[in-house]
Structures are given as C-alpha cells and as structure tokens.
C-alpha cells in the first residue's frame, strides 16, 4: 500500500469535517482482506485529526491510497502518481493549488519502501515506512528523508536470542524466503545465535510462492518423488522442535501451503505436533479468501514478536459503521467486502459460481480472525501513529514560522524531534536513525477450531530498559501446543548434562551436540550443561554425586575418639608400669642385683622412659602453638637421654669387666663420672640441634587442605623437615652405637650381665624405628601421628621390658637369687 498525505485548505472554514480520499485498485488482483485494515486505520487517523480542533485548525488532511501489488514497476508507477496531477503522470506538476503533497506512508515491505524512497528522496518528501526490516544499510545517510514507524530490527533479533536463552533452547531451525531478504535474515540470525551458544540445526529457504502454486495447480503431482515436493517436505519433516520463521509475507503464505501439502501427503490433521513456531514481527494470521479453510491449529501456541501496540479508542466503533454503499472514493471497500464475506455485489466485476449476494448488512465481527480483526493490528497501529506524527510535525511547522503553504522538506527538522503521546497513551518519537523509539511485544497465539484466535501478550523486548532488564517474560501466561501438555518444550541437540557431569564436544558435530562425562575425582559441576568441572573452594570437598561441595571436617587425633583413647590408655598404663618398676628398684636399692647395675643410671633410665611415655600425649589433641613447639623437641631430647643412659650402662659394663683384669688401667674410668659425662654429652648435642631448630624454623600449627579429599588435616608443620630428620638421625646414631657396644659385650661372664638384655632391647628399639619410616611417610592426617605415637610407645616399652623385666622377675619371684653368695658363685 502506498499512501500520500495531502494538505487541503479551507480558507475561512472554521470546521474540519471533510477530507479528500481516493483509493485505487486493479480489478484483476485479489488482495489480502486483512490488509484492508491498514487503509482503514489511515482513514480513521485522518478523520480523528480533521475532527480535532486542537490540531491544525482551519486545515484538513486528505489522502491518496494506491496498492503496490508487491511489484516494483507498479510501485514506481503509483509513486509517480503522487508527484503528478491525478489525471496524468507529469512528475512535480500539480494543477490544484489547494492540494499539496506533505508526506508519504509506506510500505509494509522493505523492497517496496526502497522503491518509493528512490523517487521520494529526490524531492525530499518525508516518507514514513512501517516495514520491520530496513531497506538499506546506513539508511539515514543514503535516504535522509526516510523514517520508520517501527524500532530497529536488531532489537527484534536480540529478543529472539533472549527468548531462546530464557527457555534454554539451543537446537533450532531457521526458515526464510528464498530471496535476498531471507538470505540476510539467515546470515544475521546464525551469527547472533552462535555468539550466544545456540546452534542452528538447519536453515531452510522456502521456494517462492509461484513455485508452490504450481504444485497447487497440479495436485496429482503431489508425490515425494517430485524434487520440489521433497524440498518442501524437508522443511517440515524434521526432529527439530523449535522453528524460527522470518515472517515475510511470501514466507508465511508459502509456509501455510507447505503445511497443507504435507498434511495431504502424510494424511495428518496436525502436522506441527511437537513444533514451536517463533515468528518475527511481520507474522499475522492473514489469509486470502482461498486459504480461509486452512487449519490454523498447527500454529496453536506459537510465539511471535510484534511492534508494541495498544488499543486505540474508537477504532472498533469506527469499523462497525462501515457501509460498502456509502463510501465514496474508496474502491477497496467493495472488493474487501466480497473477499471477506465470500459474496458478490450485483454489479460486481467478478463472477463466481455458488456465491451469495452481498447485502451490505453483513457484520465485520463475524469474519474469522484470519481474514479480518476488529482490534487494530501492529501494522495498522504503525500507520495510525505515522499519520499523527505528520500532523504534529505540520502543527509545529506552522507554530514556529507561520506561512500559507509549508513545503514538504521543511517538515524534516520537526519530524526528527517529534515527541507526543497518542490517544492510546504511548509516547511516539524517532531516534537519530529516524526509527521509532520503542520495543517489541512477545505474543502467544492461542487458536481455536472455529478459525478464531487470541493474542496473549507474554513478554516484551524493551531496549530502553536498564541493562539486564531489556527482556521480560511471563511464562505462566503462555499456552503451548496441546502435544506438550503445558510442559515446557525441550529444544536441544541431545539430553542435558546434569550436575556431576560435564560436556565433551562430539567430533564433527556442532558445538551444541556433546557427550556427558562424569566429573573427575575432586571436581564438581553444580549446573546443567557445564563445559568443565570445577574444584571446590578450600575447606570443602565434593559429595558422592559430585554436584555440590560439602564443608570438610577437621582431621586430628582427638582424645575423644577410639584411637586416641586407646593410645592414651597405653601411654598412661606404661607410665604406671614404669613408676611401679621405679618403686620396686628404690625399695630394693640395697640388694645386689640393683647395686650391680649402677643404681643412678637405672633411676635415670626409668625416669626418662616415664617421660617418653608421657610425651606421647603431646601428640594427641588438636595441635596448638605450644604443643607443636614441644612435640618433636621433647621427644628428641627425652629419647636422647634414655638412649644415652642405655649407652652409659653398656659402656659401664664393658669397662667394669675390663677393670677386673690384673694391671688394667681401666679402673680409673669406672665410676659415676664417666656415666654422667656420657649422658650429658650425648644429650647436649641433641639439645643444640633442637635449639637451632626452634630458633630458626620452629614447628607451628598448620592446615593441610589437599592431602585428604574430605577432611582438613590439622597438623604441626615441622618448619624445617631437615632439622626434624637431623633429630631423628642423631637419635638413630645413638641407638646404633649403643646396640653395637652392647652386641660386643653380650657374652661377658657376669651373673647380672645387662649387655645381653641391652642388646635385645636396642634390637627392638632399632627395629621399631626402622619400621616407623615407611608408614610415617605413606600415611596422612591423624594416622601419621598415630604411627609416631605407636613407635614411641613400642620402643620405650621395648627398653622397659627387655632391660627391667628380667630383674623384676628375680627381685619379686626369685628373691633367693638376689644375694651376694649367688652373685659370687655365678662369677666363679
């Protein structure tokens, strides 16, 4: 449709109740009845302005309407008519001085709009189009007189992406017309979808309508063997659930015919089972008369974007008063009436068999919604706003500089800066690109078997909203196709990877197609379709399903747990036994067996063993700064004293035997001085090592987050592992020296020779600590501490048992052997 707005002067006429209205059509062309509402909205807007004394007083607007027939030649021809006198095409020549072309409105199609703009821009005539897609790039530079009463289509593309992301639809098909417009749409959508993680399962182009109509004319040729039929079948016969359709007029009309053919071939009544149609803003249930019986149930639950619109007061009442016999100058009305009501007027130029006669009393509200709607559609709303924008711009032109006849090019500054509220309450203004400042509504189409339908607004794409709030959705208001049973449709290449799994791309497939692999040990995935599993934060560990992190428990050897209780009881029991042995020796200190083995060394050894048993308690309980400071150093010093006592006892035995030989010089070494020197000297070296350790890098409490998967090891960090092994190494050196000396003296003739017992005790001692190293290095947490405690208790118990058990046996159970006579007899 091509529309021109004419300014018609009534000099001295106070009322504005007339308007000039000419509408022309080709009798041989059958238009879409629903598009007639575009012309009616234009007439209604002009009538509303002419009857409003507040806008353009003493001036009436007139209109010329021409149909472009979607044809470039006819578009150019009718555009020239706007620039010429009504009778002859003489561009830029007007006979009527009272009629002036102010602006043009059109068209619905981007190509038609471009055809108009190439001529109108030469004369700088404002053109307000209502096409959803812009006809050229940098339109304001190439076509400075061009405006659009629709928002930029980029916002619509973004809205489609937001919609797919909202429902997590990542596997979609694209359907477009087989022309430049469709190619541009496919190219743009594939790029945007890919950037937002959505895969295009296929992009199909629908054959042009002329090709499809060839099949309609030869229904006997409906066979899947037909290449064109096979191409048509491939558009619908797909497992893809969501279809994005570029709702170009050619595309939607062809799509309805394709569905019709498909239903005939498949003997189906609902071919879109399992399909969700996502349409662009051009979509509408419009049909020519021969399509009035097409089943629209296949589009039940479809979603489409639409130019934001509101209900215009008075429009429905205006439609109800239409009378095909009273409208003068409107050649479209009678043709629309015949097409919509499937009837003919007596003087009609058409002749059809079995057609009813039009009476002119038929009611528009009885027409199916596919042919005509009583509420204003989005395209009609754009035309209505375009008329008011021109009127407001013209009003500002008169107000700023009164003149008898404003020229059309003088309206551009006012159109660019226009801003007003229409009768529906919406603000109308243009941005710097000459496009409507606004957004798109998201419509859910609910169809019924009687060819009626409802438009349910379920969301909006508002580019002027705050970041993150541009797209809004009311999911509860959506009615899906009955096959989904009101369950959200799923559109993915394969099933989701649920928490605990991550996606692994399939070779040779789009990135939306993937396999699901379990998360590796120590990692989780807490959301669906994660590309990689994540490590838990410090202090947490994965649960069994590896879909969430749980807080780690503290791991340390507690006094309250069975292992800690057992080791504590053992340590206290051995301590008590040591105290009892010490008491026995003190009570029997004057007996030969006690005197013969150096009482002072015996007491020192028993006291050091008692401290060894007790120092193991420092390793039980949650590590603190003091306990970490004392643990290893106390253990190293006390054990050094104990082993030094054993070494002193061994050396004393050896020297005592050597001193009994006649003329031996060893007698001067026999005595307490040598024993004390050995104990003090050996212990002093260990004390120096520990002092250096504590001064340089002392042990401290530490948390080990990684050794155990589900627990935090609370431990004493040794500070310097070298110093720790120096302490153990020196202790091992003393043990080996003591074992070697005792082993050499094991066969010395003596009634109470301790060398034999010392040899065995040191063998036990060395075996325990050599066995300690592997498990100590291989265990973690509290069990590593338990290994060290066990080694302390076992080695100390070995010294206590091997050295003192035989003597206690004689003292308590065989006192007759504990006598001087028995000692002399044994020596002899």
Keywords:
alpha/beta, 828 residues, eight-stranded mixed β-sheet, single chain, rod-shaped, 22 helices, six-stranded mixed β-sheet, Rossmann fold, 42% helix
Please provide the count of β strands.
27
CATH superfamily of the largest domain: Rhodopsin 7-helix transmembrane proteins
Percent of residues in helical segments?
Answer: 40-55%
Into which percentage range does the β-strand content fall? 15-25%
Q: Give the CA-based shape.
A: rod-shaped
CATH topology of the largest domain: Rhopdopsin 7-helix transmembrane proteins
Return the domain count: 4
- What is the end-to-end distance? 140 Å
Low-confidence stretches: 6-22, 24-29, 268-272
What kind of sheet is the major sheet?
Answer: 8 strands, mixed
Question: What is the average of the pLDDT values?
Answer: 81
Notes on the protein architecture:
- By secondary structure, this protein is α/β, with parallel strands linked by helices.
- The chain has four domains: 2-150 and 377-429, Response regulator (Rossmann fold), CATH 3.40.50; 153-280 and 285-308 and 440-484, Response regulator (Rossmann fold, 3-Layer(aba) Sandwich), CATH 3.40.50.2300; 501-551, no CATH class; 562-827, Rhopdopsin 7-helix transmembrane proteins (Up-down Bundle).
- It has 22 helices and 27 strands.
- Helix 2 (72-82) runs parallel beside helix 3, helix 7 packs parallel to helix 9 and helix 18 packs antiparallel against helix 19 (721-744).
- 40% of the residues are buried.
């Amino acid at each position: 449709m091509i529309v021109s707005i004419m300014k018609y002067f009534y000099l001295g006429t106070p009322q504005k109740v007339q308007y000039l209205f000419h509408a022309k059509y080709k009798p041989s062309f059958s238009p879409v009845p629903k598009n007639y509402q575009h012309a009616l909205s234009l007439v209604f807007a002009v009538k509303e302005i002419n009857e409003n004394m507040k806008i353009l007083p003493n001036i009436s607007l007139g209109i010329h309407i021409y149909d472009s027939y979607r044809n470039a030649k006819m578009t150019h021809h009718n555009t020239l008519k706007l620039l010429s006198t009504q009778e002859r095409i003489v561009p830029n020549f007007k006979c009527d001085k009272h009629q002036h072309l102010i602006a043009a409105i059109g068209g619905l199609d981007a190509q038609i709009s471009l055809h108009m703009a190439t001529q109108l821009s030469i004369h700088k005539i404002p053109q307000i189009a209502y096409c959803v897609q812009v006809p050229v790039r940098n339109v304001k530079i190439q076509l400075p007189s061009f405006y659009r009463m629709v928002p930029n289509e980029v916002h619509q593309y973004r809205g489609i992406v937001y919609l797919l992301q909202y429902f997590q639809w990542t596997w979609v098909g694209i359907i477009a017309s087989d022309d430049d417009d469709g190619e541009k749409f496919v190219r743009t959508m594939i790029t945007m979808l890919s950037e937002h993680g959505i895969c295009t399962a296929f992009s199909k182009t629908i054959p042009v309508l002329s090709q499809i109509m060839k099949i309609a004319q030869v229904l006997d040729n409906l066979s899947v063997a037909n290449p064109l039929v096979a191409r048509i079948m491939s558009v619908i016969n797909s497992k893809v659930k969501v279809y994005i359709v570029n709702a170009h007029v050619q595309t939607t009309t062809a799509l309805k015919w394709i569905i019709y053919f498909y239903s005939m071939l498949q003997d189906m009544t609902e071919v879109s089972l399992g399909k969700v149609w996502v349409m662009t803003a051009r979509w509408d249930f419009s049909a020519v008369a021969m399509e009035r019986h097409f089943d629209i149930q296949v589009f039940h639950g479809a979603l489409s974007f639409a130019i934001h619109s509101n209900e215009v007061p008075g429009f429905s009442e205006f439609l109800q008063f239409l009378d095909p016999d009273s409208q003068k100058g409107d050649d479209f009305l009678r043709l629309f009436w015949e097409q919509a009501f499937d009837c003919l007027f007596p003087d009609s130029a058409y002749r059809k068999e079995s057609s009813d006669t039009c009476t002119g009393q038929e009611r528009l509200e009885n027409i199916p919604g596919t042919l005509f709607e009583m509420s204003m559609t989005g395209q009609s709303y754009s035309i209505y706003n375009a008329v008011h924008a021109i009127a407001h711009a013209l009003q500002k032109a008169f107000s700023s500089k009164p003149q008898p006849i404003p020229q059309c090019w003088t309206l551009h500054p006012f159109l660019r800066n226009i801003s007003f509220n229409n009768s529906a309450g919406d603000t109308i203004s243009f941005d710097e690109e000459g496009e409507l400042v606004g957004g798109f509504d998201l419509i859910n189409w609910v169809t019924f078997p009687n060819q009626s339908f409802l438009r349910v607004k379920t969301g909006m794409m508002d580019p002027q909203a705050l970041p993150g709030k541009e797209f809004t959705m009311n999911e509860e208001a959506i009615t899906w196709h009955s096959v989904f049973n009101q369950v959200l449709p799923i559109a993915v290449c394969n099933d989701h990877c649920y928490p605990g799994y991550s996606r692994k791309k399939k070779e040779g497939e789009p990135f939306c197609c993937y396999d699901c692999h379990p998360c590796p040990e120590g990692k989780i995935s807490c959301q669906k379709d994660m590309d990689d599993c994540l490590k838990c934060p410090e202090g947490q560990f994965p649960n069994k399903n590896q879909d969430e992190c749980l807080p780690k428990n503290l791991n340390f050897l507690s006094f309250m747990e069975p292992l800690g209780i057992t080791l504590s009881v053992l340590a206290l029991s051995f301590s008590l036994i040591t105290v009892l042995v010490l008491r026995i020796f003190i009570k029997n200190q004057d007996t030969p067996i006690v005197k013969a083995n150096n009482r002072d060394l015996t007491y020192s050894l028993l006291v050091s063993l008692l401290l060894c048993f007790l120092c193991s308690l420092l390793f039980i309980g949650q590590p603190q700064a003091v306990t970490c400071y004392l643990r290893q150093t106390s253990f190293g010093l006390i054990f050094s004293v104990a082993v030094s006592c054993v070494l002193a006892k061994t050396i004393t035995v050896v020297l005592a035997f050597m001193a009994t030989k006649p003329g031996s010089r060893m007698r001067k070494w026999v005595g307490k001085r040598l024993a004390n020197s050995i104990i003090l000297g050996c212990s002093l070296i260990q004390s120096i090592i520990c002092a250096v350790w504590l001064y340089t890098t002392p042990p401290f409490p530490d948390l080990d987050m990684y050794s155990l998967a589900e627990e935090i090891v609370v431990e004493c960090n040794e500070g310097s592992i070298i110093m720790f092994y120096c302490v153990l190494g020196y202790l091992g050196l003393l043990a080996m020296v003591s074992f070697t000396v005792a082993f050499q003296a094991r066969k010395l003739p003596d009634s109470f020779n301790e060398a034999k017992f010392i040899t065995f005790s040191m063998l036990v001692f060395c075996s325990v600590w050599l066995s300690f190293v592997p498990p100590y290095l291989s265990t973690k947490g509290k069990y590593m501490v338990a290994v060290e405690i066990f080694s302390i208790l076992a080695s100390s118990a070995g010294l206590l048992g091997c050295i003192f058990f035989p003597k206690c046996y004689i003292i308590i159970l065989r006192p007759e052997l504990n006598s001087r006579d028995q000692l002399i007899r044994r020596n002899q």
